[in-house]
Specification:
Keywords: Coiled coil, Cytoplasm, mRNA processing, mRNA splicing, Phosphoprotein, Ribonucleoprotein, RNA-binding
Number of strands: 6
CATH architecture: Roll
Oligomer: single chain
Function: Plays a role in the degradation of histone mRNAs, the only eukaryotic mRNAs that are not polyadenylated. Probably also part of an LSm subunits-containing complex involved in the general process of mRNA degradation.
Distance between the termini: 52 Å
CATH topology: SH3 type barrels
Low-confidence stretches: none
InterPro entries: Lsm1, LSM_dom_sf, PTHR15588, Sm, Sm_dom_euk/arc
Pfam families: LSM
CATH class: Mainly Beta
Main location: cytoplasm
Strand order of the largest sheet: 5-1-2-3-4-6
Structural class: alpha+beta
Mean pLDDT: 89
Number of helices: 1
C-alpha cells in the first residue's frame, strides 16, 4: 500500500460508516461520502446520537456537511460489532427529556458551587468576561 499524507489517506474510507465527534460535543453517525484537504466531510444517512447514562437515542439528520475545524474525532464503525453494545436504545422523545434533565441537574450543581465559593469570599470569572482582559 502506498503512503498518502493527511486526509488523502481517508480516500479508502469513503462509503464506509463512520462516527464523528464534533467540537461542540455532538456525535454523528453516517456514511462518509466525501472529504477534502481541510477534513471537511459529507455524511449521508446521518443520525445524531445522544447519550445519557446507559441510554441513547438517534435523531435522523440526512445529509450532513461538517466543516473540518469542527471535527474532534473520526472513526470507522465496525458493522459486525455495531449492535454489540451495553447501551439501551430509547425513543427520541425519551432521550431528549433525559438530556434536558441531565443539563438542568448540571446547571443546578454549578449554581451550588458558585454559591459555596461566594460564601467563602471567592468567585469564578464568567466565561463571557474572560475576553475583556
Amino acid at each position: 500500500m502506498n503512503y498518502m499524507p493527511g486526509t488523502a489517506s481517508l480516500i479508502e474510507d469513503i462509503d464506509k460508516k463512520h462516527l464523528v465527534l464534533l467540537r461542540d460535543g455532538r456525535t454523528l453517525i453516517g456514511f462518509l461520502r466525501s472529504i477534502d484537504q481541510f477534513a471537511n466531510l459529507v455524511l449521508h444517512q446521518t443520525v445524531e446520537r445522544i447519550h445519557v447514562g446507559k441510554k441513547y437515542g438517534d435523531i435522523p439528520r440526512g445529509i450532513f456537511v461538517v466543516r473540518g475545524e469542527n471535527v474532534v474525532l473520526l472513526g470507522e464503525i465496525d458493522l459486525e460489532k455495531e449492535s454489540d453494545t451495553p447501551l439501551q436504545q430509547v425513543s427520541i422523545e425519551e432521550i431528549l427529556e433525559e438530556q434536558r434533565v441531565e443539563q438542568q441537574t448540571k446547571l443546578e450543581n454549578e449554581k451550588l458551587k458558585v454559591q459555596a465559593l461566594k460564601d467563602r469570599g471567592l468567585s469564578i470569572p464568567r466565561a463571557d468576561t474572560l475576553d475583556e482582559y
